Input
Amino acid sequence: AGGLARRVWSFSEPRPEWHAVGSAEHEGFASVSLEPQPGGLRIVLAPAGPPQGMLRGGLAADLDAGRVDDWSALLVRARSHERFSGLSVAFNLDDPRAFGGGFQFMMGGEGSSPVFNDGSVQEYLLPIKAREKGEELRSLALVAGSPGPGAAGLELLSMALVPRGAEFDQGRAARAVTRDGVTRPSISAHTPARLAWTLTVPAGGRL
Output
């Protein structure tokens, strides 16, 4: 991407350019509230009316970020103590194809990832792929899905738009990575590097 720098948003401070995306803007979405917290922003999803199955909603911002193909992924740092079905990235929200259906979270759809709910801080790498050649990146959204029917909250710490080819620019990292609709925990390291583990080998164990 010609040496583009990451675009980083820390939610330990106010981010007025990011606004809620919910039932007020999109039919079938949940009611969304954004609650500032020490060190982050809590995204709360609640039913917008009668039980509607999967709760979906999040936050979005308008961007002037060049071509979609210049960017590889949205790197999300967050934590949750509550049950979520997943996170996904959406872009160019004025396009009817921007949002996948609720099953996107359940079936490991492109650009989505499961969410850990043990309260640990996790990084999620959500791939971004252009729908058309030369498509410009005009807006960006992070969408969370919860099985409902009660309210659920996700604490968002930071997000970064990662230039293409720079997903693993850090010397070492551990995060969930999605490829071809499959999400796995991953460890990356620049070479030369050494990775070591201690493990117990059962009697008769073989490698």
Remarks:
- The helical segments are 103-106.
- The CA atoms of residues 9 and 142 lie 12 Å apart.
